[in-house]
Design goal:
With 131 residues, the protein is an alpha/beta fold. The chain is 34% helix and 25% strand. The radius of gyration is 15 Å and the shape is globular.
Length: 131
């Protein structure tokens, strides 16, 4: 059912939380059965080392052609809503999941929803307009 998935993380000055997120992403990558995944980190104008840390993580994890990572860097802090919008609009796959970088809802929850058949493909929407 879910063959491809884009996961969008809006981030702003998250250098201290990223390592726990990377650990969760790594675990998810080991157990999912999704053919293609892209992780999109949308930096909302951070002024700490957030982007550097994400860039280093991406470089270390370029070994799987079915899993891709991207960073979108916004010059100014425009707010979480704008970061989410940019990430969703740049996503390449039909299923899009947005999560905060603290991953308060586990990535594995998606697998649980899928297994319980809570996810159903319906019409496509872009910014509240039916296509």
């Amino acid at each position: 059912m879910i063959n491809s998935l884009s996961i969008v993380f809006p981030v702003y000055n998250e250098s201290k939380r990223l390592y726990l997120a990377f650990s969760n992403i790594k675990k998810f990558n080991l157990i999912h059965s999704i053919k293609k995944i892209e992780y999109i980190f949308v930096d909302d104008g951070s002024d700490d080392k957030t982007v550097e840390i994400i860039d280093k993580y991406i470089i270390k994890n370029l070994n799987n052609k079915n899993i891709t990572y991207r960073v979108i860097k916004l010059k100014n802090n425009n707010g979480k809503g704008e970061a989410l919008k940019r990430g969703v609009l740049s996503s390449k796959f039909s299923w899009v999941l947005t999560l905060d970088i603290d991953i308060s809802v586990s990535l594995n929850q998606l697998i649980i929803w899928k297994n319980k058949k809570y996810l159903k493909k319906k019409k496509k929407y872009i910014l509240d307009q039916e296509i």
